[in-house]
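Exercise 3.2. Students should predict the tertiary structure of the chain below and write it as structure tokens, then compare their answer with the key that follows.

Predict this chain's 3D structure.
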Amino acid sequence: MARGRRGAASVGVVAILAVGFAGCSSDGDDREAVASTTPTTAAPGAPVADPPLPVAVNAVPYVYAAQVGLATWKLRILGHTDPFTDATPPPGSRYVAVEVWIENGALEPQTVEPDAFLVYDRDARGSRPLSLAGFEEFAPTLAGGEAATGEFVFEVADDAMLSYLVFDGAATYGAETLDAAISLDPDFVPDDPN
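Answer key:
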């Protein structure tokens, strides 16, 4: 896939994810929390994610193209096209396509639900995939262990600087599925905590 504009700097990615966590706490592994739409309190002047981030999403996003295990799914970004020019967006916006590989890690068949995916920009604005005329929606039903590759197309503001793709697994598939944020910046490397 061709790449145009790239995601925000790692500082922006971590800052927006931190906004989603402001006011949230847990008494153990954040990954065990169930997603909710409970409003959070952000630091003064910080953008508030809209729609809200899942409560259990990772605070530091996974790196671009990493395979991420999410209990009942495995997910990897294969690439993204920004802008996606195979369709004409409304004035003031652009389309972005994100190509993913996804594998059903459950024993039972599961359907890939497009609404489980969101892209967020540096200003914490989120978008869910669109159904565009002339484009087949990526929503296959996969048997246990089966994988598929497909594209989601998102409408974002023309001035948006993309930060990450979010998989809202717990809200879509239940508490046994994890949430994840994956950087849309191919050059993103998390800070070394040491």
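Discussion points: The chain has two helices and ten strands. The helical segments are 10-21, 169-173.
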